Amino acid sequence: MPPSAAPTPAPSGSTPRLLLPEAPALVAGIGRATILTPDGEIETLPTAALANRLSELPPPILVHAPATARRLGLPPFPVAFDLLELFAFILPAQLAAPTPRGLALVLEMDAPKDDEAAAILLPEIATTLLRRLAATRHAPINRDAAMLAARLRDASDWTWAPSLLAALGQPEARPGTDALKVWRRLPDWEETAPPTPPASIPVAPLEARKRLAEILGADAETRPAQADYASAAALAFAPREAEGHPQLVLAEAGTGTGKTLGYIAPASLWAERNGAPVWVSTYTRNLQRQIDGELFRLFPDPAERRQHVVIRKGRENYLCLLNHEEAVNGAMPSRLLALSLVSRWAAATRDGDMQGGDFPGWIAELFPWGHVAGLTDRRGECIHSACPHWRRCFVEHSIRRARTARLVIANHALVMVQAALGGGDDKPALRYVFDEGHHLFDAADAAFSAEISGGEMAELRRWLLGAEGGRGRARGLRRRLEEVTTDHPALLPLVEEALRHAGSLPGPGWSSRLGEPEEHDLDEEDLPGHPARTNPGETFLRTIILQVFARSPEADVGYDAECDLHPLNPGVAEAGAALEDALRLVETPLQALHARLTGLLEDPDAELETGDRIRLDTARRTVERRGLRPLGAWRGMLKALSDRPPEPGTRPLHVDWLAITRREGRVIDAALHRHFLDPTQPFATVVAAPAHGLLITSATLRDSGEGDAEAAWEEAEARTGANHIASPAIRAAVPSPFDYPAQTLAVVVTDVARDGPQAAMAMEQLFRASGGGALGLFTAIRRLRDAHRRMAPGLEAAGLPLYAQHVDAMDNATLVDVFRAEEDSCLLGTDALRDGVDVPGRSLRLLVFDRIPWPRPTILHRERRTHLSGARPKAYDDAIARHRLRQAFGRLIRRADDRGVFVLLDSRAPTRLLAGLPEGVAVHRMGLAEAVRETRRFLNGDRPAD
Q: In what order do the strands lie in the sheet with 81-82?
């Protein structure tokens, strides 16, 4: 429903008249909603009466229509004035928490205190946004805004279009398509001369302290621990003295030390002096963004910061312009708004990063799945130089900027994968800073593992054959190499040979054919030509399923399950051998193709133009990465099936096991997994050893519950791979400046049962006592969902909104943004919300664990606790649990004036696990009623009663 009145065109040079919809404002709670009617009356209605009342009113103004409908238990709104759509159109590439308070804070308006105030504020937010658009209507970003709004008005009847056109002073604008074709307006990257060889000028500790002082400025608070940390970090930037012996520093810096700027000081100085970038690697996107924000102190000018600081991520994080173009060219009216908001963002973005960059994650949540998610390169479909947008590509821009930058902010996964590929798209780095170093083990475990699964094999088939009649830009190898094979027709038979044998991989519909064991003997599957009998990939998957169901104690409970690889069930080795033979038939022509491409590039008699050389090199690298690497790993795993099983008790290099994945009780995939027993070994070999210097740092490198200080350092070296590096590590530790005994209260509740509804009841009472600002952490998604169902009505009645991972229509980053902005809100989550979440101030003042976060008892964990624990398997489990508790505890205190309560709802919690909390923190064991009183008392400024 459009606004009720149309303004007249504004005279040239005058401010356009605003056009606001005559619509109610709607703010959702749990079980109730607050409405500001067009007549200015406030109504608070229960959900039961809400649908009828809304049917009597025009479409509402609200924030985040899908989340609002879900919270109210209503079907999706067919039409609404969603302020997030308006915000994303007018302020593209601007981040904001998707709530009334979050929008108000970004727009520098008074934040609402309750739902009634929020409802009153919503029309004011719309007015403020439209005024901003009117004031900036002549800016370059708004050059085609009227044509785009007019197209949305005519093609999809977008509710906000008339208001936008009025604010732009063009209420009768005609629609246009150029505004959607943002790729036409993006700049090309330019090649530069290769960088000169870097020097090896060291950074002395005193110089690092001086650079830190310059970054902080004369008026900064004196922090001796931060300067001490910078001095220690500088040792990682000394010249390397022998090949394979990098300068290695392990530095633990307690929360609040100022670790980021502490290592940025020597890193930036080294890069400046030596003409090569330092790569700063993190585990979480949140820290990546946080480091980028801190660098404004070093480079206050945005243009200078863009020149010297680059954020690097994998291709799957960035907008693919070819995907966007194809989506725009074939867009149905229902998808037009989503693509329009993406186009507006693409014209304003800093670097095209859609995952943790300046793309608001909630944009994707406003539309059906796939409207936005499919715009990134999530399937390895990049065709590199064959793409018409290659010279404008956001990824290619970042790769080239990284070569001349001083600081590259990356993540552990990209660093490890690029190193394994011999540099990959990026030149190998000489100096690394691994922040969140306690996660190196997990990151290496993911980067250097392999699996033969239905999904992975089907993905390879899709890369080879294309979509096979389905929708999407899956071109297949023939089309990917079309330009190359046209110029070099001798290559085409090798491509065709590989494609001829790709049918041995799971084909379209493979997942629906897996079935349960009792379904495996259907008569129709004995018919000649049935895929389950003729496809080696699918046959192998079915033998996995049979063995898992036969061996796993969890196979009949409806969840994912796993079992040991050995002893093999009858038929597994035979099916594996058949699949290995089939994969070899695919691999052999690809190997020949790769060799021919390499030969063409290295032929001294070939006079290749630059474009031809780029296409040949791109084809060669693509064949190696997407074809030969997985095929080689899979064949190696399958060959091992015929080897003698390892003797019990012997230490393996790899851990192999079988697993099935279920959804809604049905098997949807099966896999043979292979992980390194100790993944820090390949990390040390391919990442650390070639480097000249590494700083591995974290607030929690050591196990502080380990009584022996030397043993704690040795455990840190084992978890980071330092014990596999030839040069000995320099150890440094700087304590946190926070007064944890005074700023925190730690409680173990002793009278609440772990199972059933009691944990949810206890958590709700504690959340009420804190007045919100509470984070509840669960070790199982099922318990989280059950707790949300039980807790939400009571908390909402108390004015404390409750959000939850795996429940709300928001991704994790959006949930954290909401939690940070809504000071009295509550949030439930799992591991992903325990690590890397930075919520300073009162927005996080209570943290509650539902139970001890023991490691999940998997086959992989069993082998690691057996062989990596130093014959102390119990201590190995304890160290993992202590580390998780300490990481969570560290979320509470982020500033000197923070106060926080840490509660564990597990009466079985042994004292040895709580020894990992910061020194001086006393753990109080008490009943729930007392814990509630002490929480309320402490957060009001009092110490706990003795």
A: 42-46, 32-36, 25-28, 61-62, 81-82
Residue for token pair 């005559």: 22
* Burial track 524-556 (b if 16+ CB lie within 10 A, e otherwise): eeeeeeebbeebbbbbbbbbbbbbbbebbeebe
Helical residues (DSSP H) of 330-453, grouped into ranges? 333-348, 362-365, 394-404, 412-420, 440-447
Secondary structure (3-state) at 415: helix
Both tokens assigned to 485 = 């094979």
**Rg, Å, the chain Cα set:** 29
Is residue 406 within 8 A of residue 309, CB to CB? The reply is yes
Main-chain phi, psi angles of 475, to 5 degrees: -75, -25
**HSE toward the beta carbon, residue 78, CA cutoff 13 A:** 5
Output the average pLDDT for the chain.
Answer: 89
Alpha carbons 425 and 428: distance in angstroms, whole number: 9
Helix, strand or coil, per DSSP, at residue 541 = helix
Helix or strand run (H / E) with residue 569: none
**Which strands, in side-by-side order, build the sheet including 561-564?**
450-453, 666-676, 654-663, 561-564
**Are the CB atoms for 680 and 720 separated by under 8 Å?**
yes
Among residues 229, 224, 228, 289, the alpha carbon closest in space to that of 259 is found at 229
Cα–Cα distance, 760 to 784 (Å, whole number): 9
CA distance 662 to 133: 49
Question: Mind giving me the DSSP string for 182-202?
Answer: GGGGSPPP---PPPPPP----
Query: Cα separation of 828 and 772, whole Å?
Result: 12
CA-to-CA distance for 214 and 851, rounded, in angstroms?
Answer: 46
**What would the two tokens of residue 880 be?**
């993992």
Between 340 and 11, the more confident residue is 340
Cβ within 8 Å of residue 625, ≥6 positions away: 380, 421
Q: pLDDT by residue (tens digit) across 628-645?
A: 999 999 999 999 998 888
- Cα-based angle 468, 473, 477 (whole degrees, multiple of 5): 65
Q: Which residue has the tokens 């070639």?
A: 690
- What is the Cα–Cα distance from 105 to 199, expressed in whole angstroms? 47
Taking alpha carbons only, the member of 488, 450, 482 closest to residue 466 is: 482
Given a contact cutoff of 8 angstroms between Cβ atoms, the answer to whether 262 and 416 are in contact is no
The β-bridge partners of 408 are: 279, 310
Nearest CA to 632 out of 379, 423, 450 is that of 450
Taking a C-beta distance cutoff of 8 angstroms, is the pair 434, 246 a contact? no
Q: Is the separation of the CB atoms in 778 and 787 below 8 Å?
A: yes
904, 915 contact by CB (below 8 A): no
Please report the sign of the dihedral spanned by the C-alpha atoms of residue 916, residue 917, residue 921, residue 925: negative
Q: 305: buried, middle or exposed (CB in 10 Å: 19+, 13-18, 0-12)?
A: middle
- Quote the distance between the C-alpha of residue 276 and its chain's center: 28
User: Helices (DSSP H) in 355-481: which residue ranges?
Assistant: 362-365, 394-404, 412-420, 440-447, 454-465, 476-480
Distance CA 229, CA 733 (A): 8
Token couple for 894? 């982020």
What is the longest distance spanned by two Cα atoms in the chain?
Answer: 87
**Residue 44 β-bridge partners:** 34
pLDDT band (50, 70, 90) for residue 8:
very low
Q: What is the pTM of this model?
A: 0.91
Q: Is the distance from CB of 813 to CB of 761 less than 8 angstroms?
A: no
Banded model confidence at residue 571, pLDDT cuts 50, 70, 90:
very high
pLDDT of residue 379: 65
* Whole-number Cα distances in Å, 271 to 7, 193, 218, 268, 279: 57, 18, 24, 5, 10
Strands, E assignment, 760-893: 774-777, 802-804, 826-829, 846-849
